[in-house]
Amino acid sequence: MVKMKIAIIGGGACGVAAFVDLVVRICEESIQDNTELVWFEKKKELGYGLAFGTDQKGHILNTETNLMGIFSHEPGHFSEWIKERYPKLYEQNEKVFTPRKVYGEYLSDMASLFIKKAKKEKLSVSRIEEEVCELDYTDGIYELSYGESEKLCADYVILALGTPSPNTYEELMPYNKYYHSPWPGDPIVEKSKDAGTVGIMGTSLSGIDSVMTLMDNGFDGKIYMFSPDGLLPKVQPYETKPFNRKCLTLPNVHEYRRNALKKPSLKQLYWLFIKDVKLDCPDMDWQIERRFGYDALTLLEKDLEWAEKGGDPLLRMAYALRHDASTLWSWLSEEDKLHFHQWLGIHWGINRHAMPIQNAEKLQKLLKSGKLKVVSCVSKAKAVRDGEAFELKSDAGQKFEMDLLINATGSPSGLEQMDLKLVNGMLQKKMLLPYKAGGAVISSKTMQSMAPQAGSDLYVTGHLANGMLMDVNAVWFNVQMISKMTEEIVCRMLGS
Predict the structure, then answer these.
(1) Does residue 219 share a domain with residue 366?
(2) Is 311 in the same domain as 386?
(3) What's the angle, vertex CA 354, arms to CA 352 and CA 360, rounded to 5?
(4) Which of 37, 83, 319, 335 has the fewest CB atoms within 10 Å, i.e. the most exposed one?
């Protein structure tokens, strides 16, 4: 009997979510005898990936644990796992954010458990510790190239490639004092030992990870953080105060759609958002909420005050929308999605992806001491003194010179900007089609690639789908979408 072969490329959170859900569905349908799962991950350990493999104590989750379960209908599973595995940490959960390494351990644990379950049920599972470098599609079959010259054929392929690094600043890669990513932290620690000043390109959560790495390992020099807007994320409270939405709700927007027989515009959704915030906080200081024109310490201390009260209205509103945001996003035109990134993306990002309060308190101390400076800067970094230092110029024209430079600009939204050989090749072969708002063109219902040469059984998860889907930075959202994807795959298998 010829077995149907499903290849999963990537062993991080999305790869684990796809694997465990496939094992459940395949065994439920009793089709394990004619199915084989092949899992590609170049690292020996599954689950950790780039995001959750960090040993740095300042790298912590910014999402409550009861949303982080890897099973779509059991969001609290991770929390229960912590309760059993780390009871002391479970007891502290209301007062501390969980280290990301613990979540990586959870994912690894689930991967190992379901590999054992699969084998017990006679479901064939193969692990290949190699990176897939090329993918081709001919006559209904996908051919994966990996290693030096090895190939494997599959009927279904799932791309779970994790968090891609940007391919920007390739000209700086030869220099020893330039580091292209905030993770892993060990090279940053090593390279910062003889550095007096460190520059971090990026002021979002990735940049804050770099600051935490430096702080937690005794760096005592000057740190500069650069970004075009010069804005830090807001502060995530230990417990976010509930927000009672009255205007921007799915029932209200559904009512508009059936009455007007058209989709809502970005402008309409925006004003419903603002109306809700004004109802929640009539005396909101909108001037400071624009953020621009205030120094980082002033804004951070204001955000910390709000965090002690359960979060400011904008942050709480964004948090309350987390389960509806992707549906609202799907109703926007491609043009409106581009406008969102242009007009509102910065403010949505700092509210929706806030920093844990315990990290914010560390930043506050650094800013007060003068050891950290946040700079608005759109100039491109360049190497000076034969690569022994790097220079950036602020919007005000001030020059900054650093001994070590870290690229923490975060994962790029466009496929062309991702430092992934596999993706670059698939773009050239038209197996992936770029979406203007970011990521690949996919079916938002099944996660299938809709590119001309993709075939019917190529599936895209996580950050690669960032334009058509809204919340791909959230594990819980990816888990929900992956569950729909695996359901589609198994349905297609049953019908074949």
Answers:
(1) yes
(2) no
(3) 170
(4) 335
Q: What is the mean pLDDT of each run of 10 residues along the chain (496 residues)?
A: 90 97 97 96 90 85 88 95 90 75 96 97 97 96 96 98 88 92 89 94 95 94 96 93 97 96 96 97 92 94 96 96 94 95 94 94 97 92 92 92 94 93 97 96 96 96 94 92 97 89
Question: Whose CA is closest to 5, among 115, 160, 130, 140?
Answer: 140
> Which residues make Cβ contacts (< 8 Å) with residue 440, sequence separation at least 6?
415, 432, 433, 434, 449, 451, 460, 464, 465, 467, 468
Shared domain for 387 and 341, answered yes or no, is no
DSSP character string of 379-401: SPPEEEGGGTEEEEE-TTS-EEE
pTM (two decimals): 0.94
The last residue of one of the domains, among 353, 373, 397, is: 353
Three-state secondary-structure class, residue 466: coil
For 14, phi then psi, to 5°, come to -65, -40
Domain that holds residue 199: 170-233+356-407
Q: Could you tell me if 100 and 118 lie in one domain?
A: yes
User: For the chain, how many structural domains are there in total?
Assistant: 3
Residues 294 and 394 in one domain: no
- The pair of three-digit structure tokens given for residue 175, joined into one six-digit string: 């220099």
The helix/strand/coil state of 404 is strand
**458 beta partners:** 157
- Separation of alpha carbons 456 and 448, rounded Å: 7
Q: Which residue has the tokens 């897939």?
A: 132
Report the CATH number at residue 193. Answer: 3.50.50.60
In angstroms and rounded to an integer, the radius of gyration of the C-alpha atoms of the chain is: 23
- Token pair of 204 as six digits: 């979002």
The Cα–Cα gap between 344 and 257 comes to 23
Which of 129, 145, 149, 125 minimizes the C-alpha distance to 137? 145
Statement to judge: residues 420 and 383 lie in one domain: no
Q: What is the pLDDT of residue 163?
A: 86
Q: At 23, is the secondary structure helix, strand, or coil?
A: helix
